[in-house]
Amino acid sequence: MQASTFVETRAKPISVQQLNNARIAEWDAFVDVNPAATFFHRAGWRRVLEESLGHRAYYLYAEREGRIVGVLPLGHIKTLLFGNALVSVPFCVYGGVAAEDEVIEQLLTDAARELAEELQVDYLELRSRTRRNPDWPCKDELYVTFRKPIDPDVEQNMLAIPRKQRRMVRQAMKRDIQGEIDPNLDRFFPIYADSVRRHGTPVFTRRYFEALHRVFGRNCQVLTVTCEGRPVSSVMSFYFRDEVLPYYGGGTREARSVAGFDFLYWDLMRRACEQGYRMFDYGRSKVGTGSFSFKKNWGFTPEPLYYEYHLVRASRIPDINPLNPKYRLFINAWKHLPLPVANLLGPMISRGLG
Fold it and tell me: Which Pfam families match (predicted)?
């Protein structure tokens, strides 16, 4: 797309431009207050995508009278294994346009389509919690999200957990188990890397997680649970407005037997409650998977996610997910790789799994 696109409205002209470093603070100020914006709209993701994963990012914003009135973050994922796509936002649950009104939203959407055509990608993908482009092909049955308010009273949150799951948390609390906020990734990354390998998923490079921790600062926190002094589970969470979003989590082989996952997420919820956060966003899961069932068992109701597509070179919407039968052999083989080999090869593959 060109550097700037103008549209005359009855009010004032609107221009669409690409974000530069001088306007990052204004971009984030808009994201902080716009109801449609999420943590994944923050400008820091552009830096993470480009510096730690090597992808080109196009962060479009709409401006009226010198003020940002809409944003659309886009990442260009181009790999031999998984194709060529423009996504809002890759490696993130939510994305799409966040704007002050429908005119601005349409202008940004049109600018993204123009950019997708110019780049000759396979497709443009916009991720949202609501249907925004009803005439576009849509994937709305694969992924769901789980969100639930946090009660101001800690004990009420405990009582809101269904009985079976609550019993697991209380059993864990009878052990020598505790959660600790980590200043670095020294305990998180080995736990996470081994955990995803056992599930047949290529791990991201440690540099990616270090970038998240550095770029988002106090809004990115690692909580690790120990049992009798041994780390058994760990999660990297994001904080946005009054929400906490546990995003990357894992556990050792011991975690299940000591209810390390149950205690991990309870301790995260308890801490968030005490710090004044009021929404627990359990994140995305694929329907029919273990994580889907785990979150439902916590009393969370699945909400559909709408991933909408503008097809450019592709003839149909993509099916890049572990439930696709053509990836089954790869997943089963990956589970049996030695951890050092998985950690070496994983980042080269995972950077394409946007």
Answer: Acetyltransf_6 (PF13480)
Report DSSP letters for 257-277, one per residue: GGTHHHHHHHHHHHHHHHTT-
Are 100 and 179 found together in one domain?
A: no
Distance CA 255, CA 263 (A): 10
Q: At CA 189, angle to CA 187 and CA 178, rounded to 5? A: 35
Whole-structure pTM value: 0.90
CATH number for the domain spanning 91: value is: 3.40.630.30
Structural domain that includes position 105: 4-128
The answer to whether 321 and 199 are in contact (CB under 8 A) is no
Query: Is there a single domain that holds both residue 124 and residue 159?
Result: no
Task: Note down pLDDT in tens along the chain; length 354 residues.
Answer: 544 555 544 557 899 999 999 999 999 999 999 999 999 999 999 999 999 999 999 999 999 999 999 999 999 999 877 789 999 999 999 999 999 999 999 999 999 999 999 999 999 999 999 999 999 999 887 889 999 999 999 999 999 999 999 999 999 999 999 999 999 999 999 999 999 888 778 888 999 999 999 999 999 999 999 999 999 999 999 999 999 999 999 999 999 999 999 999 999 999 999 999 999 999 898 888 888 898 999 999 999 999 999 999 998 887 766 555 655 665 566 566 677 766 776 666 767 676
Residues 165 and 285 in one domain: yes
What is the domain count for the chain? 2
